[in-house]
Amino acid sequence: MLIYLDESFREGIRGHQFGVLWGIAIPEVLLADVAQDLYYMKRNSFGDDFARRRELKGKKLLKNRNLGPHASAVGRASVEFVRDTLRYIVRKRLITLGAVCFDTRLRTFKCDDPDRLDITYRALFERLDNYVSREFPGKRAKLIFDDVDYATNANRARAITNFFNRSPVGRGYDTIIRTPF
User: Fold this and answer.
1) DSSP SS3 for 144
2) pLDDT digits (tens, 9 = 90+) for 82-116
3) Potential cystine with 5: which of 10, 23, 33, 95 (Cβ 3.0-4.6 Å)?
């Protein structure tokens, strides 16, 4: 089981800011089909050049100006792409897991201290461990993270590896491979 993890930050209605740490579980045998299907969906919505060269960002797809009745053609295409993607996830029965964080001290998702794992990751890993042990007994999940920058990637990898290998709680999660990708 592959678990793709990503984070996003938003300012919601009335200026409330929040962060989302989100993951989607994709069985390895479905990876090539899912990747191809999503590529074609992206190409159909935004064109071939965009589909091949650019990464989609949830924050840009769901901008407030894309949601209103006066949205541009690109804005409407963005919202429709999100709807199609969500329908696809449901149709394929892919599982999503997430944590929403409103506390400004906790929502960086950067793991600045390699000896301490951010609580948001801990909460998500607990959910993930419960899901994998219940739905795929005897199997292990592989964590795959979005690329941020070198320092963030290195700190996050160290903090997560330390958590899974050195902490009693992390060592108890036996359904997750202990080194992230």
Assistant:
1) strand
2) 899 999 999 999 999 887 777 766 655 666 666 77
3) 23
Q: Give strand pairing partners of 36.
A: none
- Tell me which residue of 178, 5, 20 sits closest to 99, measured CA to CA: 20
pLDDT at residue 121, as a whole number: 82
Q: What are the tokens at 120?
A: 């948001």
Question: 140-165 as b/e, with b when 16 or more CB fall inside 10 Å?
Answer: ebebebeeeeeebbebbbbbbbbbbe
Half-sphere exposure of 66 (CA within 13 A, CB side): 17
Q: Is the pTM of this model over 0.90?
A: no
Q: State the Cα–Cα distance between residues 80 and 145, nearest whole angstrom.
A: 26
Instruction: Select from 37, 42, 71, 74 the least CA-distant residue to 55.
Output: 42
